Protein 1
Amino acid sequence: MKEITTADVLAAGPGVQIIDVREADETAAGMIAGAVHLPSGSVLERAGELDKSRRVIAVCHGGGRSGHVAAALTGLGFDADTLVGGMSNWEAEGLPMVTPA
């Protein structure tokens, strides 16, 4: 597991799986386009929904929860990283967000 930057996420390309591990009330403010909402408390039981052959980037508000999730997924055999500073940094940098459906 690595801590990656917003620039790393933007450069990751279409093959990456971005998972937003925040709670629903937090994602209502916006998510990274293409991210899938998997709250941190349900990631391990829903890990089967993720493709082990594709890199995973976990995102939360500040990087703490996503770091724990990325470490747990790495332990399960995933190539998983965490966005350092989370959505706080993403938003502070003025990067685009979408409203979840």
Protein 2
Amino acid sequence: MPANVPDLLLAAFPPELCGLDAAPPPGWRAACVGVGAVTAAAATARLLAASAPRRVLFVGTCGAYDGRLAPGDLLAGAEAIATSLDEVEGRAYRPAAEPVRWAAGWALPARFAPHAVAVPPAITRTAAGAAALARLAAAEHLELSGVFAACAAAGVPAAAALGVANRVGPEAHAEWCARHEGVSRALVQALRDERVL
């Protein structure tokens, strides 16, 4: 791999890149992969094929399932788990051969505490749903399994830095709307402070 090939910085949509899509840090190429795991997987695979980066960093916001995380906390996605509330509560199951877990391929600084991240097909809206999914992970995110799966298939190490914008439950959307831009700015600044970006 040539030394001048940039690493790939990804987010779901532009506000989570805080302007880095227009002016990426030196040594990085930035792009958005869209909302949802399937969309993110397809876009990530296309970007990997086009640019062959050495590694990938995904940045974004997430929701906290329980008291392990609070709004404003920063974390590293230790693993992405594709799941659903129906599956966790026993109303659905997957074929045994279907992969559902993808581990991060490189580590972020200690400031970003590692946590498992659940990736359901849609946003969880109830406190009971959050409590059920908390048995698998500390945080909820909609794209990470797609990004990590595409990177694993391509043999490219991936990491994720996420900022908690809301608690998962009935008030999550309003809380996310009020906080996501500030949390994204804090996340990008922390990555700069730690010399990741």
Protein 3
Amino acid sequence: MNIKHNDCLHFSNIDAAKGICRLTGNIVEIDSDACASYDKKAKCKFCKNFTEESTDGIGTCVGLKVNDWVYGELNAVTCSSYEEK
């Protein structure tokens, strides 16, 4: 998996294609490669409780004991079951 700017804690979305790096203030494309200041954002796709079941990033979360379908890109900063893979 390539690490992209939108996987970084310092990235803030502007729209569907670009965002701002909160460290540098530069505008960056969402899907461009992350820089050396990369700090991993908590997302479902990085959690050990997430099992990806399709090529479009949809999977199952078993951490909340409800086995719900979730998107891997979902922000998991406030999830009580988040555990880094």
